[in-house]
Write a structure and sequence with these properties.
Blueprint lengths: L2 E6 L4 E6 L6 E8 L6 E6 L2 E6 L5 H12 L15 E6 L10 E2 L2 H9 L7 H15 L5 E5 L9 H4 L5 H7 L8 H15 L5 E7 L3 E7 L2 E5 L21 H10 L3 H10 L2 H6 L5 H9 L3 H25 L4 E5 H6 L1 H8 L11 H4 L6 E2 L8 E4 L4 H16 L1
Parallel strand pairs: 1-6, 6-8, 9-12, 12-14
Antiparallel strand pairs: 1-2, 2-3, 3-4, 4-5, 7-8, 9-10, 10-11, 13-14
Helix pairs in contact: 1-3, 6-15, 10-11, 11-13
Bound molecules: adenosine monophosphate.
Length: about 400
């Protein structure tokens, strides 16, 4: 099977052509500068081509992707008929979507209904969907939501303690994000552990970071909220803070709410604490060279992640399995060690030799650790391809 995976942004569109059974990617690439002029970067194995192609809308971007996929020289398929289905990444499924689904008119209307919750991403995702429908009207399209995995949370986890009208009228509640990644590593953890019945905490630690508490395969809580700003500090996002900080800063510096939120989303997190970079590699280098602000940024990040792991163990009533994934989680043995230091009381014991690993699916806990700790490299594209293939097969 060939699944085309589309991740449409406001002026960009990423794509991959993948076999959902093997996970082999035959081609992938990126359309940039849509609405401005248009540039396509297409990769097949190690070979890369860059072409300037006019892209006045997302439609021309999709057309350019399909054209290069079937190109006799650069392409990997003979005809677009060889594309069995398209899987679209959609940011916000609100309270409408509990799982991935085949796109029809009602689904499009429901994604539109979620625009107030994902005002930047959902319109772009819809443009990608509509563009594909226009150029490949007979190919099934599937929507995979970043929020869907977390929709099994109980009300104690997802309700905010604010007046009910905001929940009832405006759907203001915790949703959580990175759901496709949390779903993928949960599925892998269940396969690797050979059992579904377990208490699992996933740490997706990258430029954006979120944790999820999972019981018997179902999400019980997650650290991000109505938006991806909540939870642990991130590359440039503050994570959780007293909401009164917003009022204080707005009043003192004459900022608008948008300006203040921009500061919390783009100028905060470990970038602000370290004063050096949002990239954990730079901060680790800074700390190693004796920069105390960098050391504080790393300590703060590890401390907040550790607190979430502890609170989720309490919420789940125990912990069997702890998973690290995404850029930092997969590649930084130092950060994993910092986080796990102090979690011995929960039964978490890392094996320093096993932990000295980057980007490889493996156990990193000691043989006598009560909790099994894993590094599981995430693969959101494979999850999207598998969901898409499963739904399309089931509909036949
Ligand atoms: P992601 O958002 O999942 O792509 O993760 C990106 C982040 O992973 C980058 O900002 C880096 O800080 C971090 N990262 C990648 N490789 C390493 C590494 N070897 N050591 C520490 N951090 C890393």
């Amino acid at each position: 099977m060939n699944i085309l995976i589309i991740n449409a942004g406001s002026s960009s569109l990423k794509y991959q052509l993948m076999d959902p059974e093997t996970g082999v990617v035959s081609a992938k690439g990126l359309c940039e500068r849509i609405y401005i002029d248009g540039r396509l970067t297409h990769k097949v194995g190690d070979k890369k081509v860059v072409k300037d192609i006019p892209m006045p809308t997302h439609s021309e971007a999709i057309q350019a992707v399909l054209a290069i996929l079937v190109d006799p020289v650069e392409g990997v398929i003979n005809s677009t008929d060889e594309i069995d289905a398209v899987g679209h990444r959609v940011l916000h499924g609100g309270m409408e979507f509990f799982d991935s689904c085949i796109i029809n008119d009602e689904v499009i209307a429901a994604i539109e209904k979620c625009i107030p919750l994902g005002p930047l991403h959902n319109p772009a995702n819809l443009m990608g969907i509509r563009a594909c429908q226009a150029v490949m009207p007979n190919t099934p399209q599937v929507a995979v939501f970043d929020t869907a995995f977390h929709m099994t949370m109980p009300p104690v986890a997802y309700r905010y303690a604010i007046p009910t009208e905001y929940y009832k009228n405006d759907s203001i509640r915790r949703y959580g994000f990175h759901g496709t990644s949390h779903k993928y590593v949960t599925k892998r953890a269940i396969e690797l552990m050979g059992r579904k019945e377990m208490k699992l905490v996933n740490c997706h630690l990258g430029n954006g970071s979120s944790l999820s508490a999972v019981k018997d395969g179902k999400c019980q809580d997650t650290s991000m909220g109505l938006t991806p700003l909540a939870g642990v500090p991130m590359g440039t996002r503050s994570g959780d803070l007293d909401p009164a900080v917003v009022q204080f800063v707005m009043n003192k510096y004459g900022m608008s709410a948008d300006e203040c939120l921009n500061m919390l989303n783009k100028k905060s997190g470990v970038l602000a604490l370290s004063g050096v970079s949002s990239d954990f590699r730079d901060i680790e280098d800074g700390a190693a060279a004796g920069n105390e602000d960098c050391a504080l940024a790393l300590d703060k990040f590890a401390y907040e992640v550790r607190k979430y792991v502890g609170s989720y163990a309490a919420a789940l009533g125990g912990l069997d399995c702890l998973v690290f994934t995404a850029g930092v989680g997969e590649n930084s043995p130092e950060m994993r060690e910092r986080i796990c230091e102090g979690l011995e009381f929960l039964g978490v014991k890392l094996d320093p030799q096993k932990n000295a690993v980057r980007g490889k699916e493996t156990i990193i806990s000691a043989d006598d650790s009560k909790v099994t700790v894993w590094v599981i490299p995430t693969n959101e594209e494979l999850m999207i391809a598998q969901d898409t293939a499963d739904l399309v097969k089931a509909a036949k």
